[in-house]
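Practice problem: Uroporphyrinogen decarboxylase (URO-D) domain-containing protein
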Amino acid sequence: MNKRDAVLSLIDSSSKPAYIPAGFFLHFGPDFQRGQSAVDRHMEFFHYTGMDFVKIQYEKKFPHLDEIQTPDDWVKLPEYPLDFYEEPLEVVEGLVKAAKKEALVVLTLYSPFMFAAQTTSYDLLTRQIKEDPEKVKIGMRIITNSVMRFVKECIRLGLDGFYMSTQGGEADRFDNPMCFDTCIRPFDLELMEEINRQCLFSILHVCDYQLPYKSIDRYKDYPGQVVNASLELTEGKISAKEVSRLFNRPFMGGMNRLGALAKGTKEEIVSAAESALKEAPERYILAADCTVPADTSWDNLKIAIDTAHNWRK
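Answer key — structure tokens:
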């Protein structure tokens, strides 16, 4: 069984996974974020760590626009054409050609809310959504149109799917759920539903990189064949099995990106991985709760991945 089949077996209820797949990812330095150097670095990392799919890091930020100061200003937001994405598309095309026969190839896709935060800031965006969600919604529509253009081109190039990252529903972000339901959820779903219709395999990532969550329930009907989320909530932990049951799909995660993976000894990494594996649902990918720090040793990640591959309950 090759790595494509191993991961796809997780979403085939009629088959038993041959082993527990695993994958971790980090941002590469500026010399490895575009062109052939990015393709080569991703492949080097994939082969060195032994992970079970290729996850492409997305490195093309939306430009920061100082002119977005009030909710009325979102109408000024430009809609970026396809050539805006030339560099990441080149990396996608290169990695599809280099790796698709060997493993599933997925790309990080930030949500419209996250791209909007790049355009302004999280604080300003959050404040403006609270003030006038209907006006900020205009900007979210413009961003979604731009990103949809990019998504469709990635699919045309043969990408297997996306690591679909979403924020906006964190604890203390919005007291009024209308803010999330007006400016975040519909635009998340528009992109994710298109991906779900067209792609073989995608991962829903509930991202706590900015703020923690009180609950991740509001995302349970978001698309994606696998769910990746932190098990640390503001009012205590949730188990990997509970997440898998809540979302009715395999879970990916279980390890703290800032814990043993980042700075631990071999024994500490093995122990942390084994703890996650012991608590995992039957259909599971060992991973971190988000992107690990860029200076994390590749050897550390290989240790965790080898532990998953050799695990037998």
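Discussion: The chain has a mean pLDDT of 96. Students who identified this feature from the tokens alone can consider the problem solved.
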